[in-house]
Every structure is written in structure tokens, then in C-alpha cells.
Amino acid sequence: MILLTVKIQAAKGKEQELEAVLRELVKATTAEDGAVEYRLHRVVGTPGAFRFTEKYKDQAAFDFHCNTEHFKALIAKVGELSEGDGDLDMLELIDSIPE
After folding, report:
1. CA dihedral (25, 31, 37, 39) positive or negative
2. What is the CATH number of the domain that holds 24?
3. Number of domains in the chain
4. What pLDDT digit, counting tens, does each position of 48-87 carry?
5. Which of 9, 15, 23, 90 sits at a 20 to 30 Å CA gap from 47?
């Protein structure tokens, strides 16, 4: 299982545009077989800050996601609407409670 978080900060005045593009990315990703979980969050108390939590069945599914046409097109838009490069963290699950 591949787990990761992605942090994205909207450029000033681009918060709503960025959110719309990120929502498009969620919608497009739902069609990917290997995407187990793909959640978009707004950071409370930090305007324009968004976080994805993502889960893929394996590395091949994550690689597929990163190479889809919708990802490439939408991530280019994200780059135009955000500050910095974003921040991606790969995670290793140690323990959890069931959902």
C-alpha cells in the first residue's frame, strides 16, 4: 500500500480557483482502479491551504496516477495557482484503529 500526504498553498487571491482545480482532480482520480483513497482537505485557520491524503494499492497504481493525462493537465494548473512547489510526504503505516 502506498500512503502519502500532499500540502498545497494557494497563491493570494487564487484560493477559489485552486480549490476548483483540486476538486476536478479528485473527480478524475475516482476512475482510477488503483486509487483506494483520495481525499481533499481544507486546513482550518490557514486560508488557501489544502491537503490531500492519498492511498494507492501499490507503486504501479501511484505511478499510473502520476502519468494520467488528467493529472498532468490539472497539476500544471495547480502550479499556476499555488505558491511554492507543494510538499509531498510518503508514509509508512505503523499502527491504526479501524475506520
Report:
1. positive
2. 3.30.70.100
3. 1
4. 999 999 999 999 999 999 999 999 999 999 999 999 888 9
5. 90
Which residue range forms the structural domain that includes residue 76? 2-91
Whole-number Å distance between alpha carbons of 30 and 71: 12
8-33 per-position pLDDT tens digit: 999 999 999 999 999 999 999 999 99
**Torsions phi, psi for 33 (to 5 deg):** -60, -40
**pTM of this prediction?**
0.90
Cβ within 8 Å of residue 6, ≥6 positions away: 51, 52, 54, 86, 87, 88, 89
Look up residue 60 and give its three cell numbers: 504501479
